[in-house]
Amino acid sequence: MPTPAEPGEPYERPVLEPVRVLRPRNTDALAELFREMTEDSGPHEAVRLPERRQPGTEADTEELPSAAGRRPPREPGPGPHRAAVASVAVLAAALAGFACALLLPARDDEAAARTPAAPTTPAPATPPPAATTDPDGAGTLREGDTGPEVTDLQQRLRRIPNVYDDGPTDGRYDPALTEAVARFQLWYGIRGDETGVYGDDTRRDLESRTG
To answer: Which of 4, 60, 102, 194 has its CA 20 to 30 A from that of 16?
Structure first.
């Protein structure tokens, strides 16, 4: 805390400068001013203030004039005539697409009809089936054959005992000769030829026995 000053010593204080000077009010000037304001006569005239409009009215939303002093022209909207023209154009495009879809298959069919058919090459002729070879051999003799080979068979069988005794040698392969050949095959175990048929196996065995 600051210590109090000694009695008799001057107290040092900061110099305070006056901020506002008060003086007695001149009531005569105030009265004169009040009188001028209440009197109607004078260089000023009363002006009627404009009526205050409520927000949201049509005048508040009125379009401001442009810089040239006139409103810009509005772009014309699509009228009924333009809407009708647009509808006709869309309908015409749809009809054209439908017609193209119908004509394309017809053109494809015409192109296919105009395309010449490829010439068909004749199939190669199949060769006639080869003659089936006799399983008993090329020089096989059987019932119904005739000729000198049959005569030779008859003569050889007559040399085998009890096979073709006293059989004819006329060159005809008859049932009696068929039975003699079958008997020879059975007795000597020849199984490569058909029974009663004079094939290669029977021929080799008979020729080996009869020289």
So the answer is: 4
3 state SS of 65: coil
The whole-angstrom separation of Cα 205 and Cα 87 is 109
Of 173, 175, 181, which Cα lies nearest the Cα of 197?
181
Domains and their CATH numbers in the chain = 148-210 (1.10.101)
For 68-108, write each residue's pLDDT tens digit.
Answer: 555 555 555 555 666 777 777 888 888 888 777 776 665 65
Which residues lie below 8 Å from residue 139, measured CB to CB, with a gap of 6+?
149, 200, 203
Give the integer Cα–Cα distance in Å for 179 and 177.
Answer: 5
The phi-psi region of residue 162 (left if phi > 0; otherwise alpha if psi is between -120 and 50; otherwise beta) is: left
Strand partners, 146: 172
Residues 162-201 have pLDDT tens digits of 999 889 999 999 999 999 999 999 999 998 899 999 999 9
CB atoms within 10 A of CB 141: 22
Higher-pLDDT residue of 87, 109: 87
The SS3 of residue 91 is: helix
Half-sphere exposure of 86 (CA within 13 A, CB side): 6
* pLDDT of 21 over the 90 cut: no
- Please report the sign of the dihedral spanned by the C-alpha atoms of residue 131, residue 134, residue 138, residue 141: negative
